[in-house]
Amino acid sequence: MSGTTFGLKQRIVAAGSEKEVLDLLQLGKTYTDASQETIRSWKNASNRRLQQLNSTVTQTETVENDSDKPVKKKKKK
Questions:
Q1: Is residue 40 part of a domain?
Q2: pTM here?
Q3: DSSP string of 15-39?
Q4: Considering the domain boundaries, does residue 65 fall inside one?
Q5: For 52, what's the count of Cα atoms within 13 Å in the CB-facing half-sphere?
Q6: If you average pLDDT over residues 43-65, what whole number do you get?
């Protein structure tokens, strides 16, 4: 066996997009022997990852929007 094998939770945490997270959750549904605790762990990890991905998009949009605004100079008193 070569390389590192990641479990589903690790793959969810490392996912690069919302679609990838959702696809991995669908894959988890095919694991019929997974315990309820494990399934809950996958869901919690996916919720955290989706929040991270969404906050990254929001921060990127904010930076892009800020660069479009003209810079106002403060008057000296």
A1: yes
A2: 0.67
A3: --SHHHHHHHHHHHHT-TT--HHHH
A4: no
A5: 13
A6: 79
Question: How many structural domains does the chain have?
Answer: 1
Cα 10 from chain centre = 12
Write out pLDDT tens, residues 31-46.
999 999 999 999 999 9
* pLDDT band at residue 64 using 50, 70 and 90 as cut-offs: low
State the amino acid at position 61 in one-letter form.
E
Domain that holds residue 48: 8-58
Token pair 């990641």 in the structure block, residue: 6
Tell me if 38 is assigned to some domain.
Answer: yes
1 in a domain, yes or no?
no
Fill in the amino acid letter for 41: S
